[in-house]
Backbone:
């Protein structure tokens, strides 16, 4: 069933669907094609879900294949642990592909998402996965790297610094479902950092790791089959993304946890994405998006002829 919602003069489509886990999104081929690549664009679809008895946002996020922070940001004012039976919430499965994305893997730290872009029969396609990243003091490094090694059923050699935090940890943890690396490891060309599965899926969509990038186990299995040694990996920091879709201009805002950007209206209005837009822009919509930082693409502009 399609539910139409009129928001700020713009018509958005929301899909009412059962919440089931999938490996990455968008799944339909037609929705995964990048028509503007290498420019940014809006992909995916936002879904609505009616909560059943006893459901928490963390459980819904896990089954829907989205991250914890993403679902919390998308539903401001909703108690993550007692959201309320019968309440309709948003499943954030739409996004703006970040600038600087290239073929291979792009990880945008503020939004806790990984983008895999590949070429398929002359067309560029994308698949998005939620991730967990390094916590304070163990920040996931930024930069341009590549895949150096790939291991199925890895053994975890526990770093000394981590064993010093938890003296009960052994020096090695063998393969299996109790291994914090999960069943797949994709090592990067930077220190001991890699992409891997997890035995604690509720850490996906949160800043809880020691620098590595965690994925749901079905996601890392899917990604493992799609990449190879020397696949480029970009780790970037873009809390704000702007892109057009049809006659409308969208903005997607995430918390600037590192305080790197001037996210005032005056500063944002100088961005090339806005100064180059040939049409109407709502400063009220921009201010609201910056204030709420819901992590969803929201409309802020429309081409002039569409207003007539």
Residues:
């Amino acid at each position: 069933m399609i539910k139409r919602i009129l928001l700020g003069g713009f018509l958005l489509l929301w899909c009412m669907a059962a919440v089931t886990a999938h490996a990455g999104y968008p799944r339909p081929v037609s929705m995964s094609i990048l028509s503007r690549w290498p420019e940014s664009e809006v992909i995916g679809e936002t879904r609505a879900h009616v909560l059943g008895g006893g459901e928490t946002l963390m459980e819904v996020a896990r089954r829907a294949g989205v991250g914890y922070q993403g679902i919390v940001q998308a539903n401001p004012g909703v108690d993550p642990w007692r959201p309320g039976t019968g309440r309709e919430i948003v499943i954030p499965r739409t996004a703006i592909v970040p600038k600087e994305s290239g073929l291979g893997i792009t990880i945008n730290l503020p939004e806790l998402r990984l983008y895999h872009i590949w070429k398929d029969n002359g067309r560029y396609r994308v698949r998005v996965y939620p991730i967990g990243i390094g916590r304070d003091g163990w920040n996931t490094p930024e930069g341009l790297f590549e895949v150096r090694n790939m291991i199925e059923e890895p053994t975890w050699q526990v770093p000394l610094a981590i064993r010093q935090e938890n003296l009960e940890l052994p020096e090695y943890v063998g393969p299996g479902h109790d291994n914090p690396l999960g069943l797949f490891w994709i090592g990067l060309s930077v220190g001991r950092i890699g992409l891997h599965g997890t035995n604690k899926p509720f850490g996906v969509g949160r800043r809880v790791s020691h620098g590595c990038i965690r994925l749901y186990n079905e996601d890392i299995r899917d990604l493992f089959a799609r990449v190879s040694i020397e696949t480029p990996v970009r780790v970037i920091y873009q809390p704000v993304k702007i892109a057009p879709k049809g006659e409308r201009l969208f903005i997607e805002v995430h918390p600037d946890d590192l305080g790197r950007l001037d996210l005032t209206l005056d500063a944002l209005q100088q961005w090339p994405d806005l100064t180059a837009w040939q049409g109407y822009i709502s400063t009220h919509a921009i201010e609201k998006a910056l204030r709420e930082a819901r992590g969803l693409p929201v409309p802020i502009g429309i081409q002039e002829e569409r207003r007539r």
